[in-house]
Automatic annotation (TrEMBL):
GO terms for molecular function: ATP binding; protein serine/threonine kinase activity. CDD domains: STKc_PknB_like. ATP binds at K43. SUPFAM superfamilies: Protein kinase-like (PK-like). This is Protein kinase domain-containing protein. Belongs to the protein kinase superfamily. Keywords: ATP-binding, Kinase, Nucleotide-binding, Serine/threonine-protein kinase, Transferase. It comes from Ciona intestinalis (Transparent sea squirt).
Length: 221
């Protein structure tokens, strides 16, 4: 499946028209207005290093984009396509007005038990889709945490940041795992103990469930 590519002319030409939403090891996320989509979020990648490093990073970016493009679920962030702006490669995604789950949990807003349980149901629905929607492959998110869970204005959630995804091919009772080249990060305390003990250990669906459990604990307490 070919990636949809946007022409840079469809976006503002002035860098000051891009509102900073957050930063990470990959680069930064900014919001702007697109000619037809309206307000969108852009994940701008900072690609540096030698020729091999740049090639590896671009390959990882393309794989993340292709994974996002195939995800069609109400609680996974919508991906629109790719573009290149200000000499940076970008993923174009829907803009989430409600911020992220971590910001909500750190705020003084008191959530009802109904709201908390609804959020957890939406999250496990997205995780289950990742693990099970493809009969031949399981997609392991690898970095589930409140910062990667975005919220709509009405506080419905969508899972985001697929830069750590692993793909496990189902071959009988065994699986063969393919990692996105730039997917080395993990976040304590949401990382399963076995991976903390051995960072080279392949990610599994059980590790995603562990991360979900820690997130659920924070939502419920």
């Amino acid at each position: 499946m070919e990636l949809k590519k946007f022409d840079p002319s469809e976006f503002p030409s002035n860098y000051h028209d891009y509102k900073l939403l957050g930063k990470g090891g990959f680069g930064e996320v900014r919001a702007c207005y697109h000619a037809s989509l309206g307000r969108v979020a852009l994940k701008l990648f900072r690609i540096t290093g030698g020729r091999k490093d740049i090639k590896r990073a671009k390959r990882g970016l393309e794989k993340e984009a292709k994974i996002l493009q195939r995800m069609k679920h109400p609680h996974i962030v919508t991906f629109y396509g790719v573009t290149s702006l200000f000499e940076k490669e970008c993923l174009v995604m829907e803009f989430m007005e409600g911020g992220n789950l971590n910001e909500l949990l750190m705020s003084k807003i008191v959530l009802s038990w109904t709201s908390r349980l609804r959020l957890l149901h939406e999250l496990i629905s997205a995780i289950s889709y990742l693990h099970n929607h493809d009969r031949k492959r399981a997609f392991i998110h690898g970095d589930i945490k409140p910062q990667n869970i975005l919220l709509t204005k009405s506080r419905s959630l969508k899972l985001a940041d697929f830069g750590s995804v692993n793909i496990s091919e189902r071959t009988g009772v065994s699986t063969t795992t393919f990692e996105i080249p730039h997917s080395t990060q993990h976040t304590w305390p949401y990382t399963a103990p076995e991976r903390l003990n051995d960072p080279d250990l392949k990610k599994t669906a059980a590790m995603d469930i562990y991360s979900y459990g820690i997130t659920a604990y924070e939502v419920l307490t």
